[in-house]
Write the structure tokens for this entry.
Amino acid sequence: MSRKPLLKVENASCWFDVSGPWLERVLKRQPPVKLKAVNGVSFTVEKGETLALVGESGCGKSTVARMLVGLYTPTSGQIEFDGHPVSALQSRDGKRLRQRLQMIFQDPYASLNPRWRVARIIAEPLKVHGQLNQAERDARVDELLLQVGLSPTDRDRYPHQFSGGQRQRISIARALAARPEFLVCDEPTSALDVSVQAQVLNLMKKLQRDLGLTYLFISHNLAVVHHVADRVAVMYLGRIVELAPRDELFSRPRHPYTRMLLSAIPDTAGTGKRRIPVAGEVPNPLNPPSGCPFHPRCPHAQDICRQVMPATLADGAAQVACHGIEQGWVTADLME
Ligand code: SF4
């Protein structure tokens, strides 16, 4: 695997104005209200790797996904794909860039037009990107159906005639139609039965090997992440609190939130590691806690945690944002 960063995200934020009607706010003299969905995240994704973004619902991971494919504009910060600003995706010249960067959504049924036959759904990106004549598009659709484990005879059927797993295969075929290099996968298996999830994940891994794809894989399910990821970024309330190689993160989690998430996975290996109960709820992002946003749930919080936001620092192969790790009162043996 080459080590060239294909995607570079630097201090990117995405804030939404949720103030309500302008006139009402002016009359009541209320200040604008900002929802800080993503707040200063930085990471790279190297060519050929899978970076997983994990965290509880509402932590901002889907907002990051939508910024990467140009569906949301960052409030601040930089996002570059192969050296080009992602803001160019929406420009006239961004066509080639859009072709190289595609997205797979969580709900395969909602993302497929129910009135279109499969062949039209899969061929649509080819028409949009102005590639190939009709006969060539037909041949490409057949090739894609085979590539995702379906049959060319499926081309004239409608989405409702397929199972959930098969519909997600159709979504993957559509995403692959224009021969992208980078797929942003937003919880691609979470709407599927557990038995079907493994089949779709294995298909995605095979496609990655065969086609040299790069994935940003978003999930709340750490077992799924362990199956697919090379590196893992853990998000909490719009920030990345830990980023580490997969095996490092699972065997030696540093951040107390990562430890809490891992504790929720059944100890099937019988390691006897101490369980840390998943306590409390994610705070309201409209009114985030001061200092470290995890402090109201953290069993190791001290005064500085309530007052000062921890910086992200390198710790071996990982990057972690935690005063306790920086100052030494949160140690690895807390998980033993
Ligand atoms: Fe816990 Fe403090 Fe570390 Fe935040 S900075 S995770 S509150 S120890």
